[in-house]
Amino acid sequence: MKLIVLYLIGLVFGVGISISGMANPAKVLNFFDIAGSWDPSLIFVMGGALVTTFIGYKLVFGRSEPVFEGDFSVPTSRTIDLKLVGGSAVFGIGWGIAGFCPGGALPALGTGRWEVFAFVGAVIVGIFLAKWFQNRQPAGATA
Amino acid sequence: MIETAFTPWLSLGGGVLIGVASTLLMFFVGRIMGATGVLAGVVQPASGEDFAWRAAVLAGMISGPAVVWLVSGNMPAVQVPVSTAALVIGGLIVGVGVTFGSGCTSGHGVCGMARLSPRSIVATMTFMVFTFVTVFLLRHVFGA
């Protein structure tokens, strides 16, 4: 039952990404190209998603716990460090080069296009590289 | 460069669905709807249960385009205006960045910002600025 609900939630996300244009690198890159072929559509994706989630979370966090679990497991860290800012900057550069972000690419896998598999495969290699690097750091060291 | 049509209503509707999915995931399992977490947890699971919930969400995500096709008769457009080398190099860089930055557009940009998390607000502003600058440099300075 729980897995069916999770599948359906993923499906709603996948349909949302698909119709929003986030799964289309041409549309994503055009959003970032204000000096060229600008397509402001993604402002509407971000706006719609943010306002809906903001209201939705307000309602959900009024409950003492989620339906299937004993606790909400949301990140509690408030540390703004080089790892967060540097990692996000690097992500931005990669997003600008490829036009795909993970949230856009995962549903796009369902189109069967080989380009999406090439991108997601590279992301997986990148995740492993970064985790390998993090594990090499002595305990207590900060990146 | 490929011209794309301005689609405010479809994009807004898609955004609302992304928000509905994020809300439902929090409502049912108390988790952030982040694509980075879903992908990392599927390729390198912390436990069997951890793998199961992320794999179920991922399977749902991948089914999205098929549902759009069934309803509309068209697969969602995937137009790739960059070279395969750019896709692969960009993908590697994205994988490294989202691991160190602990999230991407969905995790930080939607779920984190909706919680008014200072970390997510800083992360989102940072990657948006760097993406704008990268696209500007690639398209208008280096003419890629």
TrEMBL record, chain A:
One Pfam family in the UniProt entry: DUF6691
Transmembrane segments: 41-61, 82-110, 116-133
Superkingdom to which the source organism belongs: Bacteria
Record's protein name: Sulphur transport domain-containing protein
InterPro entries attached to this UniProt entry: DUF6691
Record's keyword terms, sorted: Membrane, Transmembrane, Transmembrane helix
Automatic annotation (TrEMBL), chain B:
Main location: membrane
Classification via Pfam families: Sulf_transp (PF04143)
Membrane topology: Multi-pass membrane protein
Keyword Cell membrane in annotation: yes
InterPro entries: Sulf_transp_TsuA/YedE (IPR007272)
Transmembrane keyword on record: yes
Keywords noted in UniProt: Cell inner membrane, Cell membrane, Membrane, Transmembrane, Transmembrane helix, Transport
Transmembrane segments: 6-30, 51-72, 78-100, 121-142
CC per GO annotation: plasma membrane
Localization (cell): Cell inner membrane
Similarity comment text for this entry: Belongs to the TsuA/YedE (TC 9.B.102) family.
Name of this chain's protein: Sulphur transport domain-containing protein
